[in-house]
Specification:
heterodimer, A: mainly alpha, two-stranded antiparallel sheet, 4 strands, 64% helix, B: alpha+beta, Four Helix Bundle (Hemerythrin (Met), subunit A), 2 domains, five-stranded antiparallel beta sheet, elongated
Chain lengths: 126, 326
Amino acid sequence: MAAEHKLSIFRGLLKFKSNEQKIWGVLIFLSIVTTIEVGLGINKPAFLLHSFLQIKILNWIFILLTLVKAYYIAWDFMHLRDETSGFMNSIVLPLLILIPYLVFILIIEADYIYDMMQAGFQSWNF
Amino acid sequence: MEVSTVNESEELEVWSGGNKPLQANYGKMMMWFFIVSDALTFSGFLVSYGFSRFKNINSWPIADQVFTHFPFLHGVDAPMYYVAFMTFILIFSSVTMVLAVDAGHNMNKSKAAFYMLLTIFGGAIFVGSQAWEWKNFINGEYGALETKGGQILQFVNGENGKRAVIHDFSKTILTDRTNHIKSKGVWYFSEKSLPSVSLLEVKEGFKLNSNLLIRTEILDEKGEKTILSRKESLEIIEHAQLVVEGANLIRNEYGNRLFANFFFFITGFHGFHVFSGVVINIIIFFNIIIGTYERRGHYEMVEKVGLYWHFVDLVWVFVFTFFYLV
């Protein structure tokens, strides 16, 4: 069964000889990404603290790197890369559709409630 | 004509049963669909965390100032290092799991068992680390006061900007206030253990130490907590109602009440997943040892459990980002 594994990552840029080598390669990649995240989280470079769409650029970077990590965990550790495209889509598409929808609705709503709490005549800080 | 007949019969074979159109067997497929539903549960939790955070965007606690502990480094401000360590542990146990699955594919019993054991160790270390993290969170470090409106007032030393511990600066006043227990009072009331200092002691101690200032929950433009002047501090401390030390499900010394609730609930639910993953891994480990899968002819059970274990790692990646980094 080992022969069925697709052994290249980064769109074929990096090819491994065996599945075991690929696992170590992905581990190194994930470790580098995590180290970057932690480094940024501790240092918080000032030029990344501007807001973009009400969220700091630094936080956008964190979210992006998290999605990158999630991709490699699912595709290589969970072998989603080796599944048929029908199976892969039946797993990934529901999540890709439902989760952003949920995020969109609730974050917009929370922002609205925040505005109302600031604008109202009621004091929340006493 | 002939060609179309062949196509038709092939299609008939695919959908008439007896084969696997998605090339995955039942158990693996159901594990995947369970993971999809569990992923939606976790995203529900994390999104509701985001909801509460955006609702209180100007006063949410700053994670770096809450999770600052590292084992054997007392009093050293080490934000993030410990969770980073936990993340590496979990990623590494994910790798040993994938190696166990790979060894299973090659029908290598001893190698699969060895990697399975390493995975169990990694999971156990992670659960232990989380317990330690909870212990620190529940005990708290500095203590704070709570106002009538449920706002948390923390104390800083105006000279060096460091946080002040309420237990250290409060003035000792002898009172006869004792903890209310059911056997010595009204039986239908109960009271949690009293904080180490009373409200009056903190107030008097604050008035005596002229270098102390109060820090409120509200964030300034730079995203730091607002520190009041001495005069404002002396005014606002009169609004204090309660001494808060550590965290529980009702109030916590870090700030917004929901913060501790979400912390307990999300990391707790994830920790429970890790714990059950470890238990399942142990079962699989012993099944490998006694040769169940050797006799069955394939190690697919290891692969299914591996999927669950990787999912737990995947969730932690998101919890790490949204609880500790963002």
